[in-house]
Amino acid sequence: MTCHTAARPEDGSVATAYRTIAVVGPPNSGKTTLYNRLTGLRQKVGNFPGVTVEHHIGYLRDQLGEEVALIDLPGIYSLTPKSEDERVAIDVLQGKMPGTSRPDAVILVLNSNNLHSHLVLAGRVIALGLPTLVLLNMADELKKQNGAVDVLSLARELGTPVALVSAARGFGLEAVTNFLASSSPAPEPLELPVVGNTRSVREWAVRVGENANYRRPATPIWTKRLDNIFLHRTWGPLIFVAVVIAVFQMIFVAGKPLQDLLQGFLDSTGAWIGQTLPNGLLRSMLINGVWKGVGSVVVFLPQILLLFLVIGILEDSGYLARAAVIADRTMSRVGLNGKSFIPLLSAYACAVPAIMATRTIESKRDRIATILIAPFMTCSARLPVYTMVIAAFLPSRPLLGPFLNTRAAAMLGLYVLGFVMAVLTARVLKSTLLRSKDTPFILEMPPYRWPQLSSLLLRLVDRGKAFLYRAGTVIMVVSILLWAATNFPLHNGQPPAIQDSVVASLGHAIEPVIRPLGFDWKIGVGLVTSLAAREVIIATLGTLNGIDSEAHSFDLQMALRHELSLPGAVALLVFFAFAMQCMSTLAVVRRETNGWKWPAAQFAYMTVVAYVAAYAAYHITAHWVR
Amino acid sequence: MIFNFIFGRKQDRQATAKALADLRVGERAIVRELKLDHPIAEHLMNLGFVPGLEVSVERSGPGGDPRVYRVEGTEVAMRRELSRHIQVSLVGATAFGD
Question: What are phi and psi of A439, to 5 degrees?
């Protein structure tokens, strides 16, 4: 399929002159699929300094088996430095990105089904003067839908090698090998009309397309048929709700047991390691610090992988764009767009995968806004705390006959509370800091396709690795610090009782601050340890009161009633509904926004909101009880 | 008056000129002008909303907003708050029908 005929090196056995190649292409060109085809698992994720844009560096072997680095740049439509993505692409291509050497060549991926639009980018990229290979992707769809293009003429028009490929089917990729082997010289400078003027470049693109006898493919009939159903006035929303319930069930019903299973396995391995080690500080650190730390990272994997599997299927099949259209009307009332719906929904299971899922939102501002409000959704880690406190203070009485009792109503109320605060926060953010006037909802609707298993699995591996390395390390460090805080200062070479530990001093230290909420130092200790995970407060309160919290849940409820007044209990519930008591979420936000700025702001904001609301709740309840 | 002459002509042209948001599902039109800030207009042009090219209203989302438009090579969903600022002129027989 290649048309490239440039002279090869005499013997053809010289290593390629290209050591670094940038892969560029518009969104929806299948660039990522192609990139994954070329590099497989030999890739790693990175962030360019100072920007939130993520990129991959992968490796490919040339004809002599030497490694060639492939940099995957963000999907862009043009090279006018308007968005952060485009600025990053331009900087890398011009060798201005710190820490990244200027690429020796460019592989440009275009969708052959939408050539006129995509050739605009080709014009701009080729004009940079780097050796370029143009790959017209999705050639299988082009052919099937009766489209055509003459690659030889197009190569002549562009002055670069051109090949028709299908990354999904894996054909035509030998063009890349040929490109490496030929190490073709930089293209003749392309004569572009006034660079910078999209309209004239577009006219140029149409002319080039016509000279290459480009025949646009017909819209796939199945896409029209499926859209008739999925975007139907009544069926559309119904199917949407069904899909949403399925996703939710998947994370809650399938994810939770898997997580518990993994937790059980980790606990028993921890116990086993414990038996093989001599009793002492080292054992305690390894088991309660390091191994628990590993555990608190790994337990997130089932939920993350499941959610990404589901979202991957929805995204690759093309349904996610339709779901966004359906959800958009509702979401626009909050000032967000339809793409935020699924991440926010998954935050009801856990904010960690939800925040990772926000990468399907193209608009940076909407993505940040979604990340900032996701932890207000009532995640599953809050449930044990809610259950325990409600059970301790609220007698179960029927409220609405057999349908709703007081405890369930209280639980429901807490769900509503979190949701309302999320909506309020979104509204405030979108009318101040993250105004989206500049990034309106514009969504390209790809045709429906069968998701490819290999590309789904690669993404799972990629997400899993990104979480373990980038967020996992932070979670580990905090776990070990928390362990140290509960096990120091040493008392006669032995860890102290928790009452005498650093964490207890922390509890005492913050007591004056939390006193107005009706919390004593023991609750304070619980607030500190619950940073590891919200439900940890239960075990901590158990330890502080000398009660095994799992075996004697009722005793702990009694102890809680000693510790807290009713207003204090209400304040505690409200505090947990709003506070960012979760280092894993913070670590993931840092990883996704590439810096501590947003997680720090989020932590401060949520803590202030939680404190003020808990204070109000305490006094309102106290007034009411009296 | 020469004033009326000029503006009269302009009004004639506007008889078929509409905002994209005003088209009905199934209607086709030619993009005339994007009355939007530069980055947004640029983005829309990159997607195919280029003055002189054809656009059609493919379908409407539940509740009538957002709607899906077809431009050359691709389909794009956007809200009315945006398509209101895209000036088009109708194509074909329906141009004078309503």
Answer: -130, 75
